[in-house]
Amino acid sequence: MSAEAIAETINPVPEAVEWEPHKPPTDLIFDDGDPLESHRHRIAMNALIDSVPALFPDRHDYFMGGNMFI
């Protein structure tokens, strides 16, 4: 008997268990009750977000977002 066969007899390899991701929670808050901003506000927010890469064309170590309800 080979050393590998003896090792498998002593310490059998467990069968692979299929991994399943956790289901996301369903009780998250999606709205704070206040109405959303106007279309004008969205245009202004996009203009401000789009201006950052124009100001810093050589930088890529930032994140931009707007009204993310955090």
Strand content: under 5%
User: Cα-atom Rg, whole angstroms?
Assistant: 27 Å
Helix content: 25-40%
Shape: elongated
Query: Which runs of at least 5 residues are low in confidence (pLDDT < 50)?
Result: none
Q: Please, what is the average pLDDT?
A: 77
- Structural class, please? mainly alpha
Counting H and I runs of at least 4 residues, what is the number of helices?
Answer: 2
Strand count: 0
Order of helices and strands: HH
Termini separation (Å)? 63 Å
Outline the biggest β-sheet: none
Descriptive terms for the model:
mainly alpha, 2 helices, 36% helix, elongated, 70 residues
Structure, briefly:
About 35% of the residues lie in helices and about 0% in strands.
What does it look like?
It is a single chain. The protein is an all-alpha fold and 70 residues long. It is 36% helix and 0% strand. The chain contains 2 helices and no strands. The longest helix has 17 residues, at 39-55. The protein is elongated and about 80 Å long. It starts with a helix and ends in a 15-residue tail after the last helix. The mean pLDDT is 77.
Which SSEs are present, and which pair or pack?
Elements: H1 3-10, H2 39-55
